[in-house]
Amino acid sequence: MEKYKTSEDGLYFLSTPSGVVYQTYCDMTTAGGGWTLVASVHENNMHGKCTTGDRWSSQQGGSANVPGGDGSWSNTVTFGSAEAATSDDYKNAGYYDLEAKNVAVWHVPNDNRVESWKQTSFLRYHTETNFLNQSGGNLYHLFKLFPVTYNVGSCPANTGPSVPIVYDVGNAESTHNLYGPNVRANSEPGFITFRAINSEKAAMAICSGVKPTDCNTEHSCIGGSGHFPEDSPRQCGDFTGLDWNGYGTNIHWSASKQITEAAMLIFYR
Amino acid sequence: MEKYKTSEDGLYFLSTPSGVVYQTYCDMTTAGGGWTLVASVHENNMHGKCTTGDRWSSQQGGSANVPGGDGSWSNTVTFGSAEAATSDDYKNAGYYDLEAKNVAVWHVPNDNRVESWKQTSFLRYHTETNFLNQSGGNLYHLFKLFPVTYNVGSCPANTGPSVPIVYDVGNAESTHNLYGPNVRANSEPGFITFRAINSEKAAMAICSGVKPTDCNTEHSCIGGSGHFPEDSPRQCGDFTGLDWNGYGTNIHWSASKQITEAAMLIFYR
Amino acid sequence: MEKYKTSEDGLYFLSTPSGVVYQTYCDMTTAGGGWTLVASVHENNMHGKCTTGDRWSSQQGGSANVPGGDGSWSNTVTFGSAEAATSDDYKNAGYYDLEAKNVAVWHVPNDNRVESWKQTSFLRYHTETNFLNQSGGNLYHLFKLFPVTYNVGSCPANTGPSVPIVYDVGNAESTHNLYGPNVRANSEPGFITFRAINSEKAAMAICSGVKPTDCNTEHSCIGGSGHFPEDSPRQCGDFTGLDWNGYGTNIHWSASKQITEAAMLIFYR
Q1: Strand C123-126 vs strand C203-207: parallel, antiparallel, or unpaired?
Q2: Which residues on chain A are in Cβ contact (under 8 Å) with C23?
């Protein structure tokens, strides 16, 4: 990003070492700038359980036969576009080819235009520990080390790294309130956690803003393997079991409508 | 388009104000030229009812839980390519970012190469009223005003605008004959109508060539919401209920094979 | 390709006569070089029978109502990317627009990065007969002459061309061993065969490395029409019935895990 010598947020063309050219959004201002959008996780249909559009889990219905689901967290398949990152799943070549040290995450309400992402986001944070240095330099490599695959390990022994976060918008309390009261009672805010595993050995990719302290991780961690045994396929999907006690109710294990109807944007720096 | 100072139909690279570059087909000759292809609605499987490939309605099976379906009419998600616009659904960044005054529509038989679209099209028309001036300058904005969503209004009170058309190929009678006799008895040719609603409160995006005069709009209007209550999901799909009395039979409410097996290409100027 | 005056394998930007720009992998060294990757056939879920991701057969579930399936073998729809060609189906504009004489095929284990395709491929071969001269210059045109459509002909009368191959990696025996013993007993290695038809009149696109001598072609020939009548939809999918006697068992009619978990890359020259 440095070569652009610019401080404006917006769309830029980038290219990978092997010559793949792609266009994405860069945040040139937060905490020094230089953040490249590499992916978004968007729930197109909370009622669809591992159906079309669940590219960060599985589009195959939820089955032990496809333990890794669509495999998007650790392959080179790309999809979507930066401009539609709050209306559809998005993944560009930077996701697997950038060399980065930290991540930032924005939760932006669905169907927002690029110009209003920053203002409308209700949770934004980033890491400062350079944790990606230990994981191959990006999430593609991290998830090679910690596969998002059913039955690859158990809880809590095989949970991946929990990294402390610095808030840019929101705070520990507002983050916690996005999830149901049972999640609040069984997690610690102020972290981003990778590759959670639940009681039934389903794997999830990212627990945004929290470190789970129990094994019911499917109510706060999103993106997942192709099979979730508990009442299958009810927890299978890009937003897993965030609707377990009703869509957007924010009671028991259910998340709020605010986070359910927002895309999670992932940046590298 | 003007900057190209050219009068040849064909593929051009364009870019949006925010810098998105896309390639599409331009018609540089009809009625003064300057028409940019922004979308095509293609029925990949008339027997599939809101299944994979129904990007202008829903790929989620037809359900009241997804009233807006895939939301393509009023979001920034793009898909397909200009060269495949008669073999697959197509939508580019111009659809939501061009500032236009009028639309043109071509009905081109499926699987035609770009070079033969103009000759093989059996219905082509355009508007001349500058109606998009009142609707935000393109269909993305028009469908923000008139959402293609189940249960958002009722018929006939909430039907969107019907705009008179000028024929480039075909005429009022040939247009009418593309639809079933019951549609002919309940519509007026010579118009393009936006956001029709049917008796059961399902919404449709475009009635090509006609203004419905009843509320059985699912037999002439295409692209739609995610739920069609009547005998659900039989009317759900990119080409709605054009096969209601048999595929391509052109009896009762069924459309002709000619229009069922053709893509609807949408241009802006 | 010649204009690049280069002998390095890797990604290149190419453009079609009509101006479509695309990026793909070129093999500049095998047998004189100049091979352009135009497609890959990847099985995302051997247990999914004509479900999402079966772009070279059908994503519509397997039904006589969609005899041509998704139609990818003879239309201009493109999908995927070169870098993900071993993790997803891939098809670029070169597939339908290059003028070529021969094909090369590589079988590369799934989820391999571009740099390691050549080393990890376990079967690589090419034709030298210039057979595409008689078929319109590429597979798009060949499959217009020999449609991959259910019920378009019968076996053995309407089988398409079998072209002798020259091995770059592997040989007749290693090729044969990739398929089940019943396939070995009913096919001749050393050929690539196009548009096979089986006993039930389902059509397949490519029998890689073999010429079938019976009509149970669904156990060695891949990519296919939208309907496979025998025990429907069990043979429907990008890799047809390669799992007929168990996934990867390599007994009776089942193929080996090696070929089942590898993508078939198709090159032109």
Answers
A1: unpaired
A2: 19-21
